[in-house]
Automatic annotation (TrEMBL):
Residues 182-279 form the Peptidase M20 dimerisation domain. This is Putative hydrolase YxeP. It comes from Roseovarius tolerans. Gene3D superfamilies: 3.30.70.360, Zn peptidases. The Mn(2+) ion enhances activity. Its cofactor is Mn(2+). Its EC number is 3.-.-.-.
Length: 382
């Protein structure tokens, strides 16, 4: 069973509509409503809404007992202004589907159409449209939601498009595929002064300027190395935008990455030490907080083999290209209680990179992704 030309036309129109109306993490109310409306064309046996915020789950049940198989996509967009002149360009200033979540949602909508036309023979297929992936908060919120207990999966699958890989080619390996990461926010506090008398204050300037190279120097290796670490300065601000005031406060944002969760504590300690030393050396106080905490994503060997079997049957090429990724993904949390795996679907070797302001999901991947997931569903659920 495959999607018809009419399906693909309608799904492409849905993807463009979602692209025009992006909503960022935690604000996906309208997107969730668009998904529930679109599911009317492929009515599930059960529909759950409000999971972990704005999450939606469509359940297609078999007549016989069997495993629960989760297919997950993301609802949220990014707080980035979209550039370019696409006819379906974002209508929301400062917001855009520049990671392809609009395409991932549409892939699952294609899967929903196929499952609604031929129900699973056993078990149940659960199509999860997850909120707040970009902040790392969504999966944890869904898993903690009491409503999720009724659809707890035995297997969990997901995909992400990957610019740099040939269009339709798949990256897939067992083991770690996405790094653990978290954002460290540093506040340095001294005392402001008149710009003509900086000696009467305590400026964070020297501490801030020394910390940026010290923290980035914690980076080591590549994701193919088990001891890989990466520290990226993403934001720095000092004082007020004025010429008459010597600054008394500064903030610094740094994103910390390790290949696996068990190495994150050591990197955090290594990053906190120079902050404390710099503050002490310059007569400042400091505060540290952590945000956007992502667990690493690891493909279970059994789930990975299920995906490989589907790809081989469909004649879709695959290898270990680009893996593990340095980027993070909160899908990894589903692997704590289910056999899970994520595949990476090539968006083209010259395609704009993820989070670039001119990125757009390739529509040609919609039927490819839906067909892969449908084959997995049939293998496990009949």
């Amino acid at each position: 069973m495959t999607l018809t030309n009419s399906d693909i036309t309608e799904l492409t129109a849905l993807r463009h509509d979602l692209h025009r109306h992006p909503e960022i993490s935690g604000e996906e109310d309208e997107t969730a409503r668009r998904i529930t409306t679109a599911l009317e064309a492929a009515p599930p046996d059960r529909l759950l809404t409000g999971l972990g915020g704005h999450g939606v789950a469509a359940v297609y049940a078999g007549a016989e007992s069997g495993p629960a198989v989760l297919f997950r996509c993301e609802l949220d967009a990014l707080p980035i202004e979209e550039l370019g002149n696409l006819p379906h360009r974002s209508t929301r200033p400062g917001k855009g589907h520049l990671c392809g979540h609009d395409g991932h949602m549409t892939v699952l909508m294609g899967l929903a159409r196929l499952l609604s036309r031929r129900q699973p023979a056993r078990g149940r297929a659960v199509l999860l449209f997850q909120p707040a992936e970009e902040t790392g908060a969504g999966a944890a919120a869904v898993l903690a939601d009491p409503g999720f207990e009724t659809i707890t999966p035995d297997y969990a699958f997901s995909l992400h498009n990957m610019p740099g890989l040939p269009l339709g080619h798949v990256g897939l390996i067992p083991g770690p595929v996405n790094c653990a990461s978290r954002g460290m926010a540093v506040t340095l506090t001294g005392k402001s002064a008149h710009a003509s008398e900086p000696e009467n204050g305590a400026s964070p300037m020297a501490a801030l300027s020394s910390l940026m190279p010290q923290l980035t120097a914690l980076s080591h290796g590549t994701p193919q190395d088990t001891d890989f670490t990466l520290a990226t300065v993403t934001h720095a601000q000092m004082g007020a935008p004025a010429f008459g005031i010597a600054p008394g406060e500064a903030t610094l944002y740094v994103t910390l990455r390790t290949l696996t969760d068990d190495r994150m504590a050591a990197l955090c300690e290594a990053a906190e030490t120079p902050v404390q030393e710099a503050a002490n050396a310059h007569g400042l106080t400091f505060a540290l907080t952590y945000h956007d905490i992502f667990a690493h994503c690891e493909n279970h060997p059994d789930a990975t083999q299920i995906l490989r079997n589907a790809l081989d049957t469909l004649g879709i090429t695959h290898d270990d290209s680009g893996l593990p990724m340095r980027a993070s993904e909160d899908f990894g949390r589903f692997g704590h209680s289910a056999k899970s795996a994520m595949l990476f679907l090539g968006a083209g070797t010259d395609h704009a990179a993820l989070h670039n302001p001119d990125y757009d999901f390739p529509d040609d991947l919609i039927p490819t992704g839906a067909q892969i997931f449908h084959h997995v569903a049939r293998d496990l659920l009949g």
